[in-house]
Specification:
Elements (H helix, E strand, L loop, with lengths): L4 H22 L2 H6 L7 H15 L3 H9 L2 H9 L4 H15 L3
Helix pairs in contact: 1-3, 3-6, 5-6
């Protein structure tokens, strides 16, 4: 089978996300990131959501950590106060955490 440059790049991107997610857990970065879930700054909140969604996507170790540490509950709580694109981004982050459970 022939592997295209595009598919190789996609696999590399997935590998980086997987490794980075576990690195965020093992080096204690999530508490630093997570404290910004309740920020009033929409851009900071959006960035936090991107990090969480990217790290948790198809990464059982990170998903388990985020659930055990209360991130799922925090994001669900925040969802009640969001509208529009921020609500969609919050749902995407929640979906990344619970995917495959």
């Amino acid at each position: 089978a022939v592997v295209s440059t595009q598919s190789t790049g996609e696999l590399e991107e997935l590998a980086h996300k997987y490794d980075n997610g576990q690195l965020l857990v093992s080096q204690g970065w999530f508490p630093r990131i997570g404290r910004h879930i309740y920020t009033e700054n929409k851009e900071v909140y959006r960035a936090v959501l991107r990090v969480i969604a990217s790290a948790a996507q198809s990464n059982p170790t990170v998903q388990k950590y985020l659930i055990e540490e209360g991130y799922l509950g925090a994001l669900t709580s925040q969802l009640l106060h969001q509208t529009g694109d921020l609500a969609k981004s919050t749902v995407m982050a929640i979906g990344a955490i619970i995917r495959n459970f």
